[in-house]
Amino acid sequence: MIRIEEYRSDVENQWCPGCPNFGILAAIKRALAALDLPPHRVCLVSGIGQAAKLPHYLKCNLFNGLHGRAVPVATAIRLAHPGLTTIVTSGDGCVYGEGGNHLLHAFRRNPDITVVVHDNRIYALTKGQGAPTTRRGVKTRLQFDGVSSDHAQMLATAVAHDCPFVARGFAGDLDGLTEILREAIAHRGLSLVDVIQPCITWGPHSVDWYRERIAPLPADYDPADRTAAIESALENGTPLPTGVLYRREDRPTFEETARARFGDRPLAELPPIDRSLIDQRIAAMRSGGSD
Do 254 and 111 meet the contact criterion of CB atoms below 8 Å apart? Predict the structure, then answer.
C-alpha cells in the first residue's frame, strides 16, 4: 500500500502561510495514496501561477510549462504513455483564461486525464487582477470601479459539452475534496474538478465567507441527470453545491480513438529510433537528395 510520505518533496514551498492551496496539495496526496498509485506512475502537469507550483511539492513526474498550455501537454503525455496517471493542476486564470480554448477542445476529444483547477477567482500571482471567474462588480487592483463582465460558467460549459466527469470541491473541506479527487482520478476519460480556493492575500472573499455559502449536493442527487447537472453547475446564487455534478461512463477516450487510427502501441512502448537512419536522412537532405 502506498503511503502519503512517499510523495513528500524536498522543494521549499513558496505559498503564503495559511494558503488554501495547502489543502489541495494534501487532498491530492491522500487521493493518490488511496488509489495505491506509486509516484513513478504519476505525472503532474501545470502552467504558470501560484497553483502551478504544486507539482514541485510532490515527489513524482512533472511538467511545468507555459501559461495556459497544461491541458494539451497532459493530453500528449497520456497519449504517448498511457501507463502514467496524468493530472493537470493549475489556476483558474491559467486553465480558464489563457488555456480556455485548449480546455474547450479537450471536452471534445475526451483525453483520459484529470484537470484540477485552483479557482481563487483572481489573478493572485500578478497581484490581484480580475480573472475569468471574478464576479461582476468586484473591485480589484486593476478594475478600480469593479469588473464589468459576467463571470465564466466553466462547469456548466463542461457539462454542456458532455465532459464525462465534472465536480466542484472546496479547499477547506479536506475529506470531501479528497474523495472527489479520488473519484476523478479513477474515472475513465476527462475529469474536471473546480476547487474553490480563496486567495487569502488578494482574493475578494475569505475562506469563512465561502464556508457559509457552500453546501454538499443532497444525498438523492443523480449525477447522471445532465439537465440537473447544468442547473447545479451554474453559479447564480447560494448555496454553492459541492460534489460530483455530472458523471458519464461510456464516452470513448481520445487515446482509444487514436489507437484505432495509428496502431495499438503507444509512443512510450516503441523501440528507439535508429540514429543512423536519421543521420542518413540529414546527409541526403544536405546533398540535395529527395530520400
Answer: yes
What's the pLDDT score for residue 278? Answer: 83
192-196, 198-202, 239-243, range with the lowest pLDDT: 198-202
Residue pair 94/72 in contact (Cβ under 8 Å)? The answer is: no
Please tell me whether the overall predicted TM-score, pTM, comes out greater than 0.85 for this model.
yes
pLDDT score of 59: 95
CA atoms within 13 A on the CB side of 277: 3
Domain boundaries, the chain: 4-263
What size, in residues, is the chain? 291
For 176, other C-beta atoms within 10 Å of its C-beta total 16
Residue range 4-263 in CATH 3.40.50.970: yes
What is the percentage of the chain residues whose pLDDT exceeds 90?
64
Positive or negative, the Cα torsion across 95, 99, 100, 102?
negative
CB contact burial 208-246 (16+ within 10 A = b; e otherwise): eebeeebeebeeeeebeeeebbbebbebeeeeebbbbbb
Measuring CA to CA, which residue among 131, 10, 35, 161 is closest to residue 87? 35
Amino acid at 45: V
Task: Write phi, then psi, for 24 (nearest 5 degrees).
Answer: -65, -40
Residue at 281: amino acid letter: R
Q: Encode pLDDT of 98-143 as tens digits.
A: 888 999 999 999 999 999 999 988 787 777 777 787 777 677 677 7
Instruction: Give strand ranges (E) for 31-186.
Output: 42-46, 61-64, 85-91, 114-119, 165-170
Three-state DSSP class for residue 74: helix
- Strands 85-91 and 42-46 come out as parallel
